[in-house]
Amino acid sequence: MAGERQKHPGGGFNPPEPTTKGGPDYGRFIDAVRKLQDHARAVDAPDQVISEAADTLEKLSVLLSPYDADEWASPSGRRMDLPMRGNILTVPLSSRKTEDGRIEGTARFARFHLGRNGAVHGGSLGMLFDTVLGLTASVLTGSRRQRTAYLTINYRNIVPIEQELQFDAGIDSVDGRKIFVSGKLTDGDTLLAEADALFVKLKPGQP
C-alpha cells in the first residue's frame, strides 16, 4: 500500500532513479490513458454511453487508488525503457543529438492537445518547448539538475494536431550556472513557432 511505504527524504532536485516497476504492460497502460484522453476530447456519444463510460472510469479509479505513491516511488517518469520515461504529462516526442552538437527530433500533438479550429493549444506548445529546451540544456551541457528561469515563445503559424512535426534546438551560450537555449518547431519548410529559454543549474540541495 502507498501509505505504508517509507517516504523519500526529498531535498534538492533529484534525478529520476531507473525502475522496471509497472512490468511489461506499463507502456501499454500509458498509451491506453493517452488514447482515453483523446476520446474524452473528441467523443460525441449518446448519453447512456457516456454514463457507462463514467461508471467504468470510476471503477478504474477505485482499482488504482490504493496504489497511489509519491513521485519517488511511482514508475511514471522513471521507466527509462519507455518514450519520455513513461511520463504521461509530456507531449510525445523522439529526439537525438546531431553531429554538429544540437538536438533535433519529431513531436506529434494529439486530439487531447486541441485548442480550437484544428490548432494546438498554446499552452501545450509551452509544454513541448520546456521539455525540448530543457532536454537540450541537459544533454548538451551535461547538467543533471536545472530549473526553467524563463521561456519565451513566438507563435508564427497555426500548429496542427495529429501530424508529425519537426524541432531543432541548441545552446546559445553558457554563463556560469545560466544556460541560454533556443529552438524552433516546423512543419516541413514552414516555421510554426520558435522559443528561447534560460535554465539555471541548481546548487547541491537546492530545490
Overall CATH class of the largest domain: Alpha Beta
Mean pLDDT: 92
- Main sheet strand line-up: 1-2-6-7-8-5
CATH domain topology of the largest domain: Thiol Ester Dehydrase, Chain A
Oligomer: single chain
| CATH superfamily (homologous) name of the largest domain | Hotdog Thioesterase
User: Element order, helices and strands?
Assistant: HHEEEEHEEEE
| Count of helical regions | 3
Which outline best applies? globular
The CATH architecture category of the largest domain equals Roll
Unreliable residue runs: 1-5
Query: Can you count the beta strands?
Result: 8
Rounded to the nearest angstrom, the distance between the terminal CA atoms is: 27 Å
Radius of gyration: 19 Å
Measured as a percent range, the helix fraction is 25-40%
SS class: alpha+beta
Beta-strand percent range: 25-35%
- Domains, number: 2
**What is the makeup of the main sheet?**
6 strands, antiparallel
Family: Belongs to the THEM4/THEM5 thioesterase family.
Enzyme class: hydrolase
Protein name: Acyl-coenzyme A thioesterase THEM4
Keywords: Apoptosis, Cell membrane, Cell projection, Cytoplasm, Fatty acid metabolism, Hydrolase, Lipid metabolism, Membrane, Transit peptide
Describe this structure in words.
The protein is an alpha+beta fold and 207 residues long. It folds into two domains: 17-89, no CATH class; 91-201, Roll (Thiol Ester Dehydrase, Chain A), CATH 3.10.129. It is built from three helices and eight strands. The chain has helices spanning 26-42, 47-64, 122-141; strands spanning 93-97, 103-108, 114-116, 119-120, 146-155, 164-175, 178-187, 190-201. A hairpin with a 5-residue loop joins strand 1 (93-97) and strand 2 (103-108). It is globular, with a radius of gyration of 19 Å. The model is unreliable at 1-5 (pLDDT under 50). Its main location: membrane. It is found in: Cell projection, Ruffle membrane; Cytoplasm; Membrane. This is Acyl-coenzyme A thioesterase THEM4.
